[in-house]
Amino acid sequence: MNQNLSSNLQLNIERMKELIPLDKSFDIISSHLKIGGNDAFFVGLNGYIEERTLQKIFIDVKEPVDSSDEEALVKYMHDHVGYASVTPYKTWDELLLQMFSGTALMLINGSTTGFILDIRTYPARSVEEPDTEPVTKGAHDGFTETMLTNANLIRRRIRANTLTFEPLHIGSVSRTDVSIGYLGALVDQEFLDYIRTELQSLQVTSLTMGTKSLEELLIKKNFLHPLPSICTTERPDVASSYLMEGNILILVDNSPSVMILPCSIFQFTQHPDDYYNSPIVGNYFRLVRFLCLLVSVFLLPVFLLLTSYYPEISQRFSLLSTEGMGPVRITFYVLAVEFLLDLFKYSSAHSPGRFSGSLSIVGGLIIGDVAVKLNWASNEVLFYAAVTLLTTLSLASVEFAEGMRIYRLFLIFMTAFFGPIGFWIGVALMLISIATTPTLGGKSYLWPLFPFNWQALKTLLFRYPTAKSQPSKNWHKND
User: What confidence tens digit (pLDDT) does each residue in 131-185 have?
Assistant: First the structure.
């Protein structure tokens, strides 16, 4: 398809009909018109083109011009089309790629150059706060499915002359727009070159699920590593803060989330509310979040371990009021309640908003009470499972919380089948799995804990006042 245009307009039209469904697809509009006294043909996508601007352009191109003189024609289009960006192309591949990105295509008889007029307007939803990352104070805007809007939201916060969004096209069929965002003065150039090379070398037909598809293409993982390897955000303020620390962003068109590179496990323990509150309040809630992370993983496995294999400790701390319950029965209780709470969680998440609250509360009370009466669960197990669910919901990243849930289930099964030895083996395997989680560019998933960098680690563990946490005074990725 990468062929040059003909100087004969009719031949170009016939060729276009072979390449695209010009007369079949209702959303592709075309029109015959005059440009500088020459026959011309216009093609565009209905819904992407701003009609008023197009009409103004047609009015301003009535002065005659010799279309066989390529240089004069290009100068004529630049001089007379003042309402849009005009870019000349000579091959079908370039012209059609731009046209299906929403721009208008203009072919003129006698010229082997086609012109792209950037008068597009994207259909997009309004800027709203993301449901997965709400804050009590601060900005309440979020990314949308339009990449240009997302770049504008970032540039509104960072007006640096070195802020760059490099465009790429990924997918041999979809040709999805992707851009690499970075600050030239702060970014690690070697890591930037690596990411650019990896993106350009991807062999894929389309990015069906946006950033998630791109993540799975960049990082090859298996079931041994349930934690996410790339941190994503739907908040422009969060993305901007990472940019100021030297990180790299990847924006994917049609996706409301932005990928942050490189990634470490500590990125999933932070929340914007830490910085919208005072430092002492932010530190307190960050400490609570670290505690919730441990409780969400270990509470149920440790409860199962103590009540099943160390009954004297269980009785001393009144962990279980019912006596005579063996390991098999307690394990059944734990797994049943785990399944029921996950069922409520997912059913409420995928049900309409007006039903989700009542479904999760009323359903949990009714079924929990019935499960206790039918001896499918106990009050203690319900309580510990509910605490586990609450601590899981307190984690900032949903994907990270789901990965921790997999580790919790793994520890439960290891404890149930192999007892205390299984629990400790499970903990060791879990730590190995976390430490070996693959990341892009071979960066350490435990950085800055390993390799150790106290200057960076303390800014992740503690919330410092703004005057002391400026990126210019902060750690560097190259260290």
Answer: 888 888 888 899 999 898 999 999 999 998 999 999 999 998 888 999 999 998 8
Q: What is the pTM of this model?
A: 0.84
Give the model confidence (pLDDT) of 13-30 as tens digits: 999 999 999 888 988 999
Rounded-to-integer distance, Cα 379 and Cα 372, Å = 7
